[in-house]
Specification:
Layout: H1 23-36, E1 50-62, E2 72-82, E3 96-104, E4 115-117, E5 128-131, H2 136-147, E6 150-152, E7 155-159, E8 171-173, E9 181-185, E10 189-193, E11 196-197, H3 203-213, E12 224-228, E13 238-245, E14 251-252, H4 253-262, H5 268-288, E15 292-294, H6 296-316, H7 324-339, E16 344-346, E17 358-362, E18 369-373, H8 384-387, H9 394-410, H10 417-437, H11 445-466, H12 472-483
Antiparallel strand pairs: 1-2, 2-3, 3-5, 3-11, 4-5, 6-7, 7-12, 8-9, 9-10, 10-13, 12-13, 14-17, 15-16, 17-18
The protein binds adenosine-5'-diphosphate (ADP) and the ligand O=P(O)(O)O[C@H]1O[C@H](CO)[C@@H](O[C@H]2O[C@H](CO)[C@@H](O)[C@H](O)[C@H]2O)[C@H](O)[C@H]1O.
Length: 486
């Protein structure tokens, strides 16, 4: 497809496209973005002061001119430069973010909260620049682009063969706590826009495509997606957004667990079927994509990686420091397991599996409920190459086990019975997994304990950066794991 598309779709004027290192546009937006960016939930660089912004690519999806009347839509890829956290001697770091900015002469009151700012210079001087996804009219432009594949500047829009995407679906931005941003279109599709992006296929596109091709019914298969060429390199394109079927009437595992806890209800049946669903997805991924086996050197290396992550987390979160020696014992036990000749199969994984990543949906015939798994992006803080590397299934299982503990922690004030709820749910999940996978995750306790400890350490850092009021949740697990007998 060329860029000359239907009247609904933007004509590419692209006076800004390819502007590699700033220019008038970025200069006029820098101050506004520098204030706005760190306040966004999805901004990954919390705790490290922002010291600079560079424009990587700019594409007009709708013409953007101050005084132009109609709203404009601007797609930006920007790179941040961040000083190390105060007190750290690490060098400055940077991340690349995707922004979709609307431009209007004046904002209607409904879009007031989406305002980024009003540039006082440059091509957008005096206009209101705002977060475009809040504007249903601009979100509709994006859907139309995804319906009509083709290129626009550095952006490429692709559609899965045979995917049916109705036109003109009303858009609503999801308001839940997210690492990215999602727009629901008419309860039929959901578009996830990745915020922190890096060159290479995002596993949240790669794995659902592979699972859909293998006929796995547990994961909504992508209908369309868009990506960008990384300017000046021949590396793989960078995935920017994925449109997938929306599962209406679904409730996520986290909400469900909290509801059950509120009613003091047993969760073992749901946890058991969730274990089965996880095993089915793992089995399909192992059949569809490359696998291998970790031997001594790789397992020792994995244990070293876990110790390093602990050291980094302890440097950032003082509360972790007293528990370092106790936690390291789990990683030493993994290295010992390797030295005793232990090996471990590895395969592609979910990478950040927890109760918020699973949806319970009424099945199409309305006769039962069905677990689906979403968000295969992996832990947002890890580099993309690491997230795409095969790993032990114990990593995902440990993530879900931690999540039962998280849910119980929310209800702890209700009494100590929640510990039994968590233990029973964890056991049922492992039983369901073992039945469907044919191998019991509890058979390699060193692997599970090391991964659970690694996950709890990750969660401490995550909560310290994003939700300090929740820090006590993983810290309770840290105390327990650090005191666990060998
Ligand atoms: N296919 C879907 N159908 C229904 N709801 C979905 C679907 N995909 C995602 N969601 C909802 O959107 C939320 C955020 O999606 P997710 O992929 O986890 O984004 P993030 O990586 O930003 O956290 C989920 O918790 C879920 O409630
Ligand atoms: O879902 P995301 O990809 O955004 O994952 C990140 O955020 C999660 C929280 O929203 C975080 O999960 C932690 O809190 C959950 C409850 O809110 C709990 O179910 C998880 O077990 C716990 O790890 C996740 O770690 C983070 O990567």
């Amino acid at each position: 497809m060329s860029d000359s598309s239907s009247p609904r779709t933007a004509q590419a004027r692209l006076p800004l496209a390819g502007a590699p290192h700033g220019g008038a546009l970025l200069r006029s937006l820098t101050g506004l973005l520098a204030r706005w960016l760190p306040r966004q939930r999805w901004f990954a660089g919390k705790g490290r002061p922002l010291s600079g912004l560079t424009l990587i690519a700019a594409t007009e999806l709708l013409p953007c001119t101050a005084g132009g009347g109609a709203p404009g839509l601007l797609h930006l890829l920007i790179r941040t430069r961040q000083s190390p956290a105060p007190g750290s001697h690490a060098p400055p770091v940077g991340d690349c973010y995707q922004l979709l900015l609307g431009v209007r002469d004046a904002l209607p009151p409904s879009l007031g909260p989406a305002l980024v700012g009003r540039p006082s210079e440059g091509p957008l001087r005096g206009a209101s620049v705002y977060e475009a996804l809040h504007d249903p009219r601009l979100a509709a432009v994006l859907l139309e682009r995804l319906r009509t594949p083709g290129r626009l500047g550095t952006l490429s829009f692709r559609r899965a063969p045979g995917a049916h995407i109705p036109e003109g679906l009303p858009a609503r931005l999801m308001t839940s706590e997210q690492s990215n941003s999602s727009v629901v279109y008419g309860e039929s599709h959901i578009l996830k826009l990745f915020r922190r992006v890096s060159p290479g296929v995002n596993p949240d596109l790669e794995l659902p495509l592979a699972l859909a091709a293998a006929g796995c019914p547990r994961v909504p298969g992508p209908s369309a997606w868009f990506e960008a060429a990384w300017p000046g390199t021949v590396s793989e394109p960078l995935t920017l957004g994925v449109l997938a079927p929306f599962l209406p009437g679904s409730v996520d595992g986290w909400q469900l667990a909290i509801q059950y806890l509120g009613r003091r209800a047993d969760f073992t049946s749901a946890a058991h079927s969730l274990g089965r669903a996880t095993a089915e997805v793992h089995t399909t991924l192992a059949e569809a994509l490359p696998t291998s086996v970790m031997g001594r050197a790789q397992l020792e290396q994995a244990a070293t990686g876990m110790s390093e992550r602990l050291a980094e987390a302890a440097a950032a979160v003082p509360a972790l420091r007293p528990y370092r020696a106790g936690l390291r014992r789990a990683f030493e036990a993994l290295a010992d397991f390797a030295r005793r000749g232990g090996t471990c199969p590895v395969q592609r994984l979910h990478g950040d599996l927890h109760l918020g990543q699973v949806l319970l949906t009424p099945d199409a015939r309305g006769r039962g409920m069905h677990w689906s798994i979403i968000d295969f992006e992996g832990e947002p803080a890890r580099p993309l190459a690491e997230r795409r590397r095969p790993g032990p299934v114990a990593r995902d299982i440990a993530g879900m086990l931690r999540s039962f503990d998280y849910a119980a922690a929310q209800a702890r004030a209700a009494g100590s019975w929640v510990d039994g709820w968590s233990r029973a749910s964890r056991a049922a999940y492992c039983r369901g997994y073992a039945e469907a996978a044919g191998s019991d995750p509890l058979e390699r306790p060193e692997l599970l304990r090391a991964h659970e400890t690694d996950k709890a350490v990750y969660e401490v850092l995550y909560e310290a950066r994003h939700r300090p009021a929740w820090l006590h949740v993983p810290m309770a697990a840290i105390r327990r794991l650090a005191a666990a007998p060998d």
